């Protein structure tokens, strides 16, 4: 939803941000963001409720069981539940989450301004390299 507000604020500078009000509000906010939030919450709920049984691969008799165990090798040993919107969170954590969101919004907006100011097409190699660089920089936080 913050990105939709960003698009509205900068549509006078970036022509590709101009959208119909119903496209921005109904489709982007309610349908796609709402559906994405709901699916994400269902996924998080399912991941917290899942039971993990850790055992040695030598104790598994079937080949399919060993293959499944090998794939599960790359999942974490324990799952930590996060309550991002818990009202008992400290102000410092709230500011840290807010800062993360703002930096990400500025980074995304920067992409559009660079393409607009330097008149680069979306398939320009520098645009692609910049996206890869942002992905590499943010990878440790995931």
From TrEMBL:
Biological role: Catalyzes a base-exchange reaction in which the polar head group of phosphatidylethanolamine (PE) is replaced by L-serine.
UniProt keyword terms in alphabetical order: Endoplasmic reticulum, Lipid biosynthesis, Lipid metabolism, Membrane, Phospholipid biosynthesis, Phospholipid metabolism, Transferase, Transmembrane, Transmembrane helix
GO terms, molecular function: L-serine-phosphatidylethanolamine phosphatidyltransferase activity
GO annotation (BP), single: phosphatidylserine biosynthetic process
Superkingdom per UniProt: Eukaryota
Pfam families: PSS (PF03034)
Entry annotated with the keyword Protein transport: no
Pathways per UniProt: Phospholipid metabolism; phosphatidylserine biosynthesis; Lipid metabolism
GO-annotated cellular components: endoplasmic reticulum membrane
This protein's record includes keyword Transmembrane helix: yes
Lineage, highest ranks first: Eukaryota, Metazoa, Ecdysozoa, Arthropoda, Crustacea
InterPro entries in the record: PSS
Protein name in UniProt: Phosphatidylserine synthase
The protein's Enzyme Commission number: 2.7.8.29
Membrane topology: Multi-pass membrane protein
Catalytic activity: a 1,2-diacyl-sn-glycero-3-phosphoethanolamine + L-serine = a 1,2-diacyl-sn-glycero-3-phospho-L-serine + ethanolamine
Major localization listed first in the record, in broad terms: endoplasmic reticulum
Family: Belongs to the phosphatidyl serine synthase family.
Cellular localisation: Endoplasmic reticulum membrane
């Amino acid at each position: 939803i913050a990105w939709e507000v960003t698009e509205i604020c900068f549509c006078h500078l970036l022509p590709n941000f101009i959208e119909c009000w119903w496209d921005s509000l109904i489709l982007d906010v309610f349908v796609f963001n709402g559906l994405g939030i709901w699916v994400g919450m269902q996924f998080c709920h399912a991941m917290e409720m899942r039971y993990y049984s850790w055992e040695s691969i030598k104790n598994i008799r079937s080949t399919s069981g060993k293959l499944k165990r090998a794939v599960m090798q790359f999942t974490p040993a324990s799952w930590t539940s996060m309550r991002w919107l818990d009202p008992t969170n400290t102000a410092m954590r709230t500011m840290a989450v807010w800062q993360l969101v703002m930096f990400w919004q500025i980074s995304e907006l920067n992409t559009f301004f660079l393409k607009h100011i330097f008149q680069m097409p979306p398939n320009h190699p520098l645009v692609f390299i910049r996206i890869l660089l942002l992905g590499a920089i943010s990878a440790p936080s995931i």
